[in-house]
Amino acid sequence: xxxxxxxxxxxxxxxxxxxxxxxxxxxxxxxxxxxxxxxxxxxxxxxxxxxxxxxxxxxxxxxxxxxxxxxxxxxxxxxxxxxxxxxxxxxxxxxxxxxxxxxxxxxxxxxxxxxxxxxxxxxxxxxxxxxxxxxxxxxxxxxxxxxxxxxxxxxxxxxxxxxxxxxxxxxxxxxxxxxxxxxxxxxxxxxxx
Length: 193
What we know:
Layout (H helix, E strand, L loop, with lengths): L21 H27 L6 E4 L5 E18 L16 E19 L6 E2 L8 E3 L5 E3 L2 E8 L6 E7 L12 E11 L4
Antiparallel strand pairs: 1-2, 2-3, 3-4, 3-9, 5-6, 7-8, 7-9
């Protein structure tokens, strides 16, 4: 049997004081672990709420044109902002999920484009946008037939849409605001040659 003086003090309560119950220590450690796990989950959800563009190119004016998505089919949904809502937590949503939807009675493709300032990353308007052209591997050109513009403003509850089925861009300039995203959706028919 070992001598009581060789046992580390951290495992033994001081003389005259009772040891804290093992259950209390276990619950305390589990509670601290849960707080850390929830904090990491919040950081992960916030980080995932900011998607990156598929491709981008620098324009002549120094701004960056970004390709955010290409959707096909009869119904389309573009997620402007995934939001930071965390299910099952009573803290509510710090930032709501925002989407733009479009649908037609025929199959088509929508190319979702945005433009940002190269230095600040702030969204810039695409009021000059007129159309886009998809070119396949054989050189066949398919121009857009319609376009629309959507944008989300910081702390605004909804997405504003302008002319999602508009036949002839360009668009009127947007008023000054703190925009999260300004996106143009260009509609291209999926016709066979």
